[in-house]
Amino acid sequence: MALAALIAAYHESAEPGVLRATLPLAGRTVIERQARLAALAGATIIVILVERMPAALTAALDRLRRDRVPVHIARNAEEAAEAVDPSARLLLVADGAVADGTQMARLADGTMPTVLTVPDGGFGELYERIDGNSRWAGLAAVDGALLREVAPMLREWDMQSTMLRRALQAGARHLIADGPVAILDSDEDLVALERRIVASAAETGGGWAERMLAPAERALTGVLTPSPATPGMIGSAATLLAALGAGAFAYQWLRTGLALLLLATPLEGTALRLARLRMQDDVPHSWWCLLLPALAGAALAALAYALAATHGWGMILLAFTTLAFLAALAIETEGRPIRGTLLLAERRGMIWLMLPFALLGLWHAGLVLLFAYAAASFFWAQRQAHPPQPLS
């Protein structure tokens, strides 16, 4: 069954002259997070119901279109009904309502009309009362045909409230929210939610270097979250530093080159965290994400050429063999659960491993260590991915 979404974006917030939809959230706006959550749940068309188009809302919708989020503007309920297939399952998102992706997925996966609810006691008047025990959490899933039915009869009635009431009258089941939900109406409402969003985007995984850099990346992400800085800007800065670092190695400014590469590592992680926070799933495939490994490889090769003058051409062979082991390691670990992944060689960690050798002036010894680390990681991963078969 096709999935569509209808998001209300016309209520004024408690902040003078600001729509709920354009309240700032995680460096963007509420409507952008709502639309991205709906797209993540599988909605192939996202109808934004508006009454007026202030500059902030226009800018938010332009950003969504640039990121290929399938948004469609409707000026009234009739236009919205025309845009939605009557046979589609329709996610109804109240003005200012935000939940995590799990709640959206629970509603999208069902087949019967469903209303997401919260307990009556802990939520205020922004959450419409459903019965004596529960209130509406601002999300529901109905049939597209219900929108066609409701649209002609609205007149002065509020669309989202009318849709809710008709769904309940039709026997929609109640689904208790089992994750964070919020209906945002003022800057004060944003504080706690934004803190939870930042925390969820900052979950640490990957190798030991990512965990080591996590505190710095979390702090930097927190600073950049309310700013207009984009993951692309931060990733581009990391790429520039890495390129300058490789160039510095080529000119035999070894410590300068390493310092630049070290500075690039937390910026790269911060860019990826900010992308997760803003639900920009295409960022890991952006040009700078693809270029950074190549620049790190170029820096290692440039370092080897710089060391060859005093330690022989074996340094160059060592560097390129290290890169070959890293490439083979990536192939072996792709899509496979490998025991001990936390300790395996990876690019950012290997940059930091060179730091003590650089401080002691033992660059050649550091290169030998990187080779041994990459080789050992490859052979370990290969054995885990292809364990020996018992003799029959």
Would you spell out the secondary-structure blueprint of this structure?
Elements (H helix, E strand, L loop, with lengths): L2 E6 L15 E2 L2 E2 H12 L3 E5 L5 H12 L4 E4 L2 H7 L5 E5 L3 E3 L1 H9 L4 E6 L14 E10 H7 L8 H11 L3 E4 L4 E3 L3 H15 L6 H17 L6 H20 L3 H24 L9 H25 L2 H20 L13 H14 L2 H23 L7
Parallel strand pairs: 1-4, 1-6, 4-5, 8-10
Antiparallel strand pairs: 2-3, 6-9, 7-11, 8-9
Fill in the keyword field for this structure:
392 residues; alpha/beta; Spore Coat Polysaccharide Biosynthesis Protein SpsA, Chain A; Four Helix Bundle (Hemerythrin (Met), subunit A); 2 domains; seven-stranded mixed beta sheet; two-stranded antiparallel ribbon; 14 helices
Summarize this entry quickly:
This protein is α/β, with parallel strands linked by helices.
Fraction of residues in β-strands = 5-15%
CATH superfamily of the largest domain: Spore Coat Polysaccharide Biosynthesis Protein SpsA, Chain A
What is the first-to-last residue Cα distance?
49 Å
**Mean pLDDT over all positions:** 88
Order of helices and strands: EEEHEHEHEEHEEHHEEHHHHHHHH
CATH fold group of the largest domain: Spore Coat Polysaccharide Biosynthesis Protein SpsA, Chain A
Structural class: alpha/beta
* Tally of separate helices: 14
Q: How helix-rich are the residues, as a percent range?
A: 55-70%
Query: How many domains, as an integer?
Result: 2
Report strand order across the widest sheet.
Answer: 5-4-1-6-9-8-10
Largest sheet, in brief, is:
7 strands, mixed
CATH architecture of the largest domain: Alpha-Beta Complex
- Uncertain spans: none
